[in-house]
């Protein structure tokens, strides 16, 4: 059985971009029979300042959200990253076989640190090493990622090969990225050149999975489009309307070409209305399940404890082998 691993940070609400770009794919892969390790990456969240109380709440909320989206904890291993110290311990070992120059090439540090990189945390600088540890400690065959995240898998592959060279043994499996489809690249409702993001200041830039129907309708009505009346897909020249077409295709399980053909002669306002109705209908069971899950904290804690125990069985074995190979007692 092929094994895959993926994770998601708990900061902010799960939104439509996360759902279509990651979680929906996880659900399909789990149901297809992949041995799947899915975790809530709360250690990565603290590379930026967080309110401790809110972070704890959001961590449990995110776990509830992915279950509400259809991820069956009986078919996969769902856990919280910080409950397994093996991740951090392996990250230290891997940091000792990773050249600083590799970290200097990572674009996300430059983007997040901006002009104040000297004041940014060391954790933000070396987080790709922790991310590599998250992956390698489970020896997965595949890591599902978007096209824009390939660099993270490439550095993981480099670090794995560096460790293997140091110990003169092909210990860590070199994972392959599993690139997801075009419908997953969901953009902001306010700017078609940017990803839909939990960190965007404007809540109108995204559809949160717990938004009520009125809010969803309003956000789509206010979604940026253009002055061209005819509806057609052109990612470069018409990024906003193309983004809305992508969302419709992703939620309806129809091809982009089919959606484009259906709405070619219809008004943009009519298309937005239909898209809002479709989104409301698609998210209704998710929102209702999520509401019930967050109220049953005992049940959620039990699921995460069981997932953590299963993950630890694998992680502890691989960490012990890595420590032995590198010469640690």
Please summarize what this structure is.
The protein is mainly alpha-helical.
List keywords for this structure.
single chain; 329 residues; mainly alpha; Rossmann fold; 13 helices
Describe, in plain words, how this protein is organized in 3D.
- This protein is mainly α and 329 residues long.
- The protein has two domains: 3-184 and 296-326, 3-Layer(aba) Sandwich (Rossmann fold), CATH 3.40.50.620; 203-291, Tyrosyl-Transfer RNA Synthetase.
- 55% of the residues lie in helices and 7% in strands.
- The protein has 13 helices and five strands.
- The strands form two sheets. Strands 1-2-3 form a three-stranded parallel sheet. The protein has a two-stranded parallel ribbon with strand order 4-5.
- Strand 4, helix 8 (150-167) and strand 5 form a beta-alpha-beta unit.
- Helix 7 crosses helix 8, helix 10 crosses helix 11 (256-263) and helix 10 (239-252) crosses helix 12.
- The longest helix has 30 residues, at 297-326.
- The mean pLDDT is 93.
